[in-house]
Amino acid sequence: MYKKILIIFITLIMCIFFVGCEKEKKTEKIKVHLSVAASLKDPFLKIEQLYEKEHKNVDLILNFGSSGALKQQIVQGAPCDVFISASTNYMDELKNDGYLLDDTYNEFTKNELVLVSKTNTINSIEDLKNDKYKKIGIGDLNTVPVGQYADEVLKNKDIKKDLEDKFVYAKDAMEVLAWTLSSNVDAGFLYSSDISKYKDVNIYKIDSELHSPIIYPIGVIKDSKQLEETIKIKKFLLSDDAKKILKDYGYTF
């Protein structure tokens, strides 16, 4: 009698387990990994919300960071289906090395370079030589595109050597923004989109002829595990709905 009860009990437990597994399998979402330039964080959180609302079966996994660091992660095998860089250089490198799916490299959006200060009015780049600018926030020149664009400006204005002792290097654009808003630096090189929602800062727009065009490219990684869904997501990211969100954050096309 005891043996029969034990068998019935074990059978019930197994039924409950398999039903639970089947239910979990049915509700399991498709995970798509996106490596996105840190400066795009705010609009991408909105884009993620909109896409997942319309596609209940998809879970977008967003990985934000400097474009150079993200590119290196991809090369080292980190999970990534879509890459959005703040510079064409890193996307070009991935394309040339065979990491991108053919015909999936497109221009995603554009931006502008600005110099921002919480406390000082800026009338020109040369103002940075003034003693009131003791610390200047700039993205790491090896991995952060906003820092690389700023570096081009400083070289073209022939004032880089005058300012090098003042530079504080950040891991990405968002770190420069945090330092600038908290006045931990006296000025910082940023994208215009970074400060689009802040009103109590002083902004100097930098002449676009002093640096390379700020173009954000998008590409699909060839080894994507969810290629069909990834292509759908890329199509959405290039749609008018996504562009509207980007425009709200100061990006251009």
From TrEMBL:
InterPro entries: ModA (IPR005950), ModA/WtpA (IPR050682). Pfam families: SBP_bac_11. The keyword Ubl conjugation does not apply. Keywords: Metal-binding, Signal. Belongs to the bacterial solute-binding protein ModA family. NCBIfam families: modA. PANTHER family: MOLYBDATE-BINDING PERIPLASMIC PROTEIN, SULFATE-BINDING PROTEIN. This is Molybdate transport system substrate-binding protein.
